[in-house]
Description:
This protein is of the alpha+beta class and 382 residues long.
Amino acid sequence: xxxxxxxxxxxxxxxxxxxxxxxxxxxxLTVGHRELLVLVGPSGCGKTTTLRLLAGLEAxxxxxxxxxxxxxxxxxxxxxxxAMVFQSPALYPHLSVxxxxxxxxxxRKCGKAEIAKRVKEAAQMLRLSDCLARLPMALSGxxxxxxxxxxxxxxxPGLFLFDEPLSNLDPQMRSQxxxxxxxxxxxLESTMLYVTHDQSEAMMLGDRxxxxxxxKLQQAGKSLEVYRHPANLFVAGFIGSPPxxxxxxxxxxxxxxxxxxxxxxxxxxxAGRLRLSLTEGAARKLxxxxxxxxxxxxxxxxxxxxxxxxxxxxxxxxxxxxxAIETTGAEAFLHTTGGGxxxxxxxxxxxxxxxxxxxxxxxxxxxxxxxDPTTKQAIAHQ
Length: 382
């Protein structure tokens, strides 16, 4: 087990014209003993560079890397008591599964009995016992990736690093190996740092997730905490599939309360004006924003869709047109356009909606999020 602390970690690379390109910027992050932390973000956000810095494959421009209280800046990768699994299995094609698993131990001059014991244990954990005599070319993609994981496992390091190890697999195999990784983490009680660009995978796998963008840490916390209480517009739009819906509008005082009135991109009320009453709790937090522009965020599961009806209250609901229907099994997502804005809505797959048809959208303001359009930071959530 290992306790990892990254403090003010920064990494610059030289650009094509001699300029400095910052891949990781002033990163502060802690990975606790026995924790599985998932580092997630879009391509180019700095998550793999962070992993390589921790592994010693890159040298930091600034900041410190500590494991169990020992600063590792300048320490060779082989002396860091960690093992890394890459996106590609990178197995030795001429060696059997057994010899691939044992290779690192042989380099470290472990005894034959100890090597056999560790390889056998790893093979049993990863369901590779029947494959030990095979060459990598005789394995499936999932089996090859399990061998790569096993190669790290036999070393018994204090820290495991995973760099998108499942991204080249088909969805079914990804799901299977993801479950196996979670089972291994629970069984080994080891510390793991896992990198992925797939936010769904991050939420399913991690004890905590850390969201990065443009080299900076945006938010770290329990998966549901980040989902339910995103720190800013980027996190709110990145975590969740489909992402959170956003509407720009003004907060208007009315009879001692606050109402949100949507605005078009040009700053004027759209043709299908939406006027929603804030809850008492949100109104108290947002008094300072009365009369100002604000961003309302609502997740697809907090918007309802129904057939248009004559008794609908003007402004409290929004007429929208169904542009696409995405069925995922027990549920479906309607991709609609209302008030000039695209809005995704989660519905039961049993409900029937027509492409090009009209629906009436209702908003659960008890689940609404509010963001400052200038700072992009979250202001309030009920």
